[in-house]
Amino acid sequence: MNTLSGQGIIVVGNGLAGCLLAWTLLQQGKKVHIFAGDKACASRVAAGLINPVTGQRFVLAEQTPEMLNFAHQFYHHIENTLNVSFFHTKTMFRLFNSQKEQENCKNRLKNNKYKDYLKEQSITTNLKQEHGSIVQTHTAWLDTNTLLDALHTYFKQQNIITYRNVETTHSEQTAIYCEGYHMMSNPLFSWLPLQPAHGEIITCNTENILPDAIINKSKWLLPMNKKTCRIGATFDTKITTPTQLETSKQQLLAFANGLFHASYNFKVTQHQAGIRPTTLDKQPFIGFHPKQKNTAIFNGFGSRGSLLIPWYSHLFTQSLLTHDPIPAKVDISRYSNLLNQ
Residue 247 above 80 pLDDT? Predict the structure, then answer.
């Protein structure tokens, strides 16, 4: 197992994965330098939603409770250290799309491990609830732009960030690539089966007061304050560069308008697009290159990065420091057979 060298670590990437991994390494007393480059960062577009119970089947994935507790501690530590606020707990109103979803949810409520996350409570009557609804708890959202701005400011103050692409490194330096979907153009790791997914989000002002909860019905509406919200997100695996499409904007507006009985007259103030670094098996890419000494990757967190990255930043850092193996399900060695194909 490769370990951190005395010459320090280079982290390549300016998004959530690179910045939070760099922060974790610094907290362990390691010498780090970040190459932010000039490439678009999907983390700047992401809503940063944290939702423990997901999908049409209302799944609480393995280790999610532990990840959630760790994320709370991790983000609050950064907030307290940098004197910034970016981590916001907020209840979620989940509106069922069908009777089948309602039945799936009722079945989960029979399982004790779900009872702390799903609550049968009435919600605002202003929302259309043709098939019913559930209140989800332990949900939150991460203001990724505020977080990244604070981290970049801190890194600049420490003189450990460079805003250009990484150049050739000394052989004794460990380089960890956290480039999001730009990984596809990196010959070191382009063999890994990334499945990038294009997504668009709009920010809107509205005339009426919004419910103080995240509203989820396949897509989502996230209130930023009483009359401003973000709405998202689209999902398209065929679009390969961030593109703001008029059809996507209208689709998101139609979704938001369809949530309420009353008219909210949403006015778009911002329209953003990004590429999610999703993977073939829905698990991140973490670990060292099978053939390139001191070259590693930390990537592929998809739409769950706000929850997963703190947890895996810790595990990867501990693995580097103590020789302990990282979990097999995220280790890139699971795809080593693809390297020479």
Answer: yes
What are the CA-CA distances from residue 38 to residues 155, 162, 164, 258, 274 (Å)? 16, 10, 6, 39, 15
- pTM for the full predicted model: 0.95
- Residues 19-65: pLDDT tens digits? 999 999 999 999 999 999 877 788 999 999 999 999 999 999 999 99
Q: State the Cα–Cα distance between residues 67 and 285, nearest whole angstrom.
A: 17
Burial 209-242 (b: 16+ CB within 10 A, else e): ebbebbbbbebbbbbeeeeebbbbbbebeebeeb
Q: Is the bond into 233 cis (omega within 30 degrees of 0)?
A: yes
CA–CA gap between residue 272 and residue 230 (Å, rounded): 10
Label residues 85-109 b or e (16+ Cβ within 10 Å = b).
Answer: ebbeeebbbbbbeeeebeebbeebe
Amino acid occupying residue 62: E
> What strand order describes the sheet that includes 92-95?
118-119, 133-136, 92-95, 214-217, 219-225, 228-232, 197-205, 267-276
- What amino acid is encoded at 78 in this protein? I
Q: How far apart are CA 290 and CA 34, in angstroms?
A: 23
- Nearest to 227, CA basis, from 258, 201, 192, 264: 264
Q: What DSSP letter does each residue of 167-183 carry, written as one string? A: -PPPTTSEEEE--GGGG
Question: Do the bridges between strand 174-177 and strand 197-205 make them parallel or antiparallel, or are there none, so unpaired?
Answer: unpaired
Best CA proximity match to 327, nearest among 52, 56, 67: 67
| pLDDT band with cut points at 50, 70 and 90 for residue 168 | low
CA dist 335 and 309 (Å) reads 21
d(CA 104, CA 323) in angstroms, rounded, equals 42
